Amino acid sequence: MTQIPAKKARPLSPHLQIYRLPLAALISISHRITGVALTVGMVIFVAWLVCLAEGEESYTRFITLAHSLIGQIVLFGFTFAFFFHFCAGVRHLVWDTGHGLDIPDVNRSNYLIVASAIILTLGLWAGLLWCHS
Questions:
Q1: pLDDT band at residue 14 under the 50/70/90 scheme
Q2: Omega of the bond leading into 22 within 30 degrees of 0 (cis)
Q3: Cα separation of 20 and 116, whole Å?
Q4: DSSP annotation of 7
Q5: Cα(71)–Cα(64) distance, rounded to whole angstroms?
Q6: CB of 39 within 8 A of CB of 78?
Q7: Residue 89, SS3 per DSSP
Q8: How is 32-67 classified by DSSP, letter by letter?
């Protein structure tokens, strides 16, 4: 009788330790995450409206929190999430017309989304700092 050779223990393919998600997949996942972040951010917006309606003392407390370091980080992140989600959404609108679906076009638009979101976010915050100085 012939013996069956023992099976080697092989990693799953593609193995999670060596597999890198393509940029298009990361952009897609990030688009969904920023959508959730924007939804959560709307709670902050509603809290601002409630504080505004409650009067000066409540509004002053909210503005003090918004001007703190943590408040500024949250607002900066919300701004980036908005612009990233907006740019990725524009790409989806372009795709709905049937344009930009080739792999080289998708790769270019991936970098364009990230660059546009960063530039728009930094531009808005630079403009805000310039107006308040």
A1: low
A2: no
A3: 24
A4: P
A5: 9
A6: no
A7: helix
A8: HHHHHHHHHHHHHHHHHHHHHHH-HHHHHHHHHHHH
Other Cβ atoms closer than 10 A to 112: 13
CB of 95 within 8 A of CB of 31?
A: no
Locate 99 and state its tokens.
């344009």
Tokens of 83: 């612009």
pLDDT given for residue 5 in this prediction: 66
Mean pLDDT of 61-88: 96
Domains plus CATH for the chain? 23-132 (1.20.1300.10)
Is 80 exceeded by the pLDDT of residue 17?
no
Amino acid 98: pLDDT:
95
Q: What is the pTM of this model?
A: 0.83
